[in-house]
Amino acid sequence: MRDLWVSLRRFLFIILFSLAIGAVFIMMIGENPLNAYGALVRGAFVGKLNLGKTLANFTPLLLTSLAFAVGAKGGAFNVGVEGEVFLGGIAAAYIGIHWTFLPMPLHLLACFLGAMIVGALSAFIPGALKAYYGVNEVCTTILLNYVAFYVTSYLVSGPMSAGVANAQSHAVADQVKLFQFMKPSSANVGMFIAIVVSIGVIWVFNKTTFGYKIRTVGSNPLHAEYVGINPKKNFIQTMMFSGVLGGIAGCIEILGVHGYFLNNFAANLGFNGMLASLIVKNNILLTPFMAFFLGALKSGALGLQQSTGVPKSIVDTITAVFIIVATMDLLFQYHKKRKVKMAQKEGE
Amino acid sequence: MHFDKIVNLSLIYATLRSATPIIYAALCAAITQQANILNIGTEGIMLMGAFTAVAVSYLTGSWLLAIIVAMLSGLLMAMIIAMGHLKYGAEITAIGIGVNMFALAFTKYLLNSILGKTGSFTDPKIIGIPKVHIAAFDNNEVLNTLFNNWSITEWFALILIVLLTFVLFKTVWGLRLRAVGKFPLAAETAGINATGMRYQALAISGLIGGLAGAHLSLGYSKMFTENMTNGRGFMGVAAMFFGGAHPVLTAIGCLVFGFADSIGARLQAYGVPSQFVLLMPYAVTVAVLAISMAMKKAREKHKKSSLNIADKKGLKS
Questions:
Q1: Which residues contact B62 (CB under 8 A, 6 or more apart)?
Q2: Does residue A69 form part of some domain?
Q3: Residue A324 counted as domain residue
Q4: CA–CA gap between residue A169 and residue A145 (Å, rounded)
Q5: Other CB atoms closer than 10 Å to residue B308's CB: what's the count?
Q6: How many whole angstroms from its chain centre is CA B232?
Q7: Nearest CB neighbour to B90, from listed A147, A329, A340
Q8: A187 near A194, Cβ under 8 Å?
């Protein structure tokens, strides 16, 4: 209980610190920080459209942040979630457009399964490269994100193009479109699917053998090998699990929000999910709340830009400051720092 | 296809030209890697440098001042990483990513608030890095295409490779830095201040990263675009892995990516879809990196096969 209080206090400190830095930036361009923050909150929650936007932003972030957190817990720094969202999305779009011979529930299921498989396969590449050849996964996943983006971009402007001005695919069959319950915003029933999936992920992570293996390999691969877990194989599985979640996020975005594959639709979905996860130090239980917070921030930023003269990028800046400060374990933990120092002295 | 139009003498310069920003980025990552710090923040340092260089060049009209201030801005970013990682125990990958995101958002914000533009910024008042014109080469076609009209920073990249190799492998400081990277405890026992060395490595890395950005925005082009580094920092990190953090080998790795980039640009004229051209450097980077690491692993295995003792390293090592 005390631990929770300490981490909560630390969290509040970080929020206040980031908001203070943000206030300085806002004042630098001659705006009132309080007004700006007020506009931010209004833009996120007040009104059906704004609230709906927040929920629509929250849905993919929930999945991508969990995808990253699960990977991180298994020792994989999977920056490639974004690419997996793209590839999962294109798979869902392809199946959604062409497999209309299937009846409705099967068709929907096929879309999700296709996205999951493609997501998993795309995460398999960096996973296997790291496990067997020691290729740094941060590097490969980031570079493969670009590959995924350009491949999907080619597909929707070439073979799968709808032939309109924007690079986009044909619309998916109506029967697989997810119902949007808060029109005119794009919040859709995909949100509930995402919530169910994330509850499932938390259950798998905490209560099953597979979850135990992920946690063991992530915290101590030598120990894992000692107790008979193959850390290499498990690392790849963790990456693929992460990829599956990314694929589902892509599928929900395509079927729920757009209804077709829009070029570059997943820009920053993976990165923001990673942010959400990093801020809470990849804590699986806290990650969903952070995803909601960032989703609100994202729609709030839009409101901020529209109603005041403050550019949207300031919110991104504040979030980045937030994460830099949050990664510094020993900051705002004077008590712990002293302890660590004392321990170091004793060791010397 | 006109093979001779794709592969000709000017391809060599084109390769070098598109490789240079990556070479700087790779050197930025290599120097910290020698101290066993993976500088994922290279991209952010570089982006910050790129923006600062353009802003200063536009406001003061001096390219030299622009480079110096850009290097200082890189230093500042590197110091954020250094403080976070070395003093406050931040995980190096996490804070590196954090710095990248900060640079991306902050340059956007500054572009908006200082220069009043969104998206990209280009202006005749931006003074680029001058090109070196050697009149003696004018009459010789080969020398003219190969060596004339390089920008100063392109020449300097070559000098920097030699300089860093010398510093790392022929000086006391370099030996100490590598000792800290290989076995910090032993280095400390020998009286080396390991944390101090790490700070110094990150500081130099920041200066080089800032220069990388300045070259990208003032030497390679004469403008600033949001996210203009576009993964070059990560390509640099990949090249650093490819070359095992040795400056010369690392630079050779960069040339491979530069080659993929420039040959792609030529293929575009022959009906290859632009997306394939654009993704080529990234895909080639991953492939080359994978092959080189696999070969390295095989070599190590071969060396160890006769004395197979401490082979069980696990994933993290």
A1: B56, B127
A2: yes
A3: no
A4: 20
A5: 9
A6: 7
A7: A329
A8: no
Three-state SS at A170:
strand
Chain B residues within an 8 Å CB radius of A225:
312, 314
pLDDT digits (tens), chain A, 348 positions: 566 677 777 778 888 888 888 888 888 888 888 888 888 888 888 888 889 889 999 999 999 999 999 999 998 889 899 999 999 999 999 999 998 888 888 999 999 999 999 999 999 999 999 999 888 888 899 889 999 999 999 998 888 888 777 888 888 888 888 888 877 888 888 999 999 999 999 999 999 999 999 999 988 888 888 888 898 999 999 999 999 999 999 999 999 988 889 888 888 888 889 888 888 888 888 889 889 988 888 888 888 888 887 888 888 888 888 888 888 877 766 555 555 566 665 554
R_g of chain A computed on alpha carbons: 21
Q: Are B22 and B239 in contact (CB under 8 A)?
A: yes
Cβ–Cβ below 8 Å for B286 and A144? yes
Entry pTM? 0.85
As a whole number of angstroms, the distance between CA B218 and CA B67 comes to 9
Instruction: Number of A to B CB contacts under 8 A, please give it.
Output: 156
The count of structural domains within chain A is 1
Longest dimension (CA), chain A: 72
CB contact under 8 A, A320 and B98: yes
Q: Which residues contact A204 (CB under 8 A, 6 or more apart)?
A: A210, A211
Q: Please name the member of B87, B106, B282 whose beta carbon is closest to the beta carbon of A146.
A: B282
* SS3 state of residue A165: coil
Report if residue A10 sits inside a domain: no
| Residue span of the structural domain in which A93 resides | 32-308
Tokens 């406050």 — which residue?
A: B88
Phi and psi at B133, nearest 5°, equal -110, 120
A232 interaction partners in chain B (CB closer than 8 Å): 315
Kindly identify which residue of chain A lies nearest to residue B232, measuring between CA atoms.
A143
Residues in A closer than 8 angstroms to B235, CB to CB, are 143
Would you say the ipTM is above 0.95?
A: no
Chain B residue at shortest CA distance from A311 = B109
- Classify the C-alpha dihedral A33-A36-A41-A44 as positive or negative: negative
Measure Cα distances from B33 to A26, A244, B178, B244 in Å: 37, 33, 9, 9
A58 falls within a domain: yes
- Which of B95, B113, B282 has its CB closest to that of A324? B95
Helix, strand, coil percent values for chain A (each to nearest 5): 75, 5, 20
CB contact under 8 A, B108 and A321: no
- Return the amino acid letter for B158: L
In this structure, whether the domain defined by B3-129+150-300 belongs to CATH 1.10.3470 is answered with yes
Q: CATH number for the domain including A81?
A: 1.10.3470
Distance, CA of A179 to chain centre: 22
Taken in order A25, A27, A33, A36, the sign of the CA dihedral is negative
**Mind telling me how many Å the CA of A69 is from chain B's nearest CA?**
12
* N-terminal to C-terminal alpha carbon distance within chain A: 33
Locate the DSSP E strands across chain A: 168-171, 260-262
Do residues A221 and B316 lie in contact, with contact meaning Cβ atoms separated by under 8 Å? yes
Q: How many CB atoms lie within 10 A of CB A292?
A: 18
Structure tokens given for A60: 């993919």
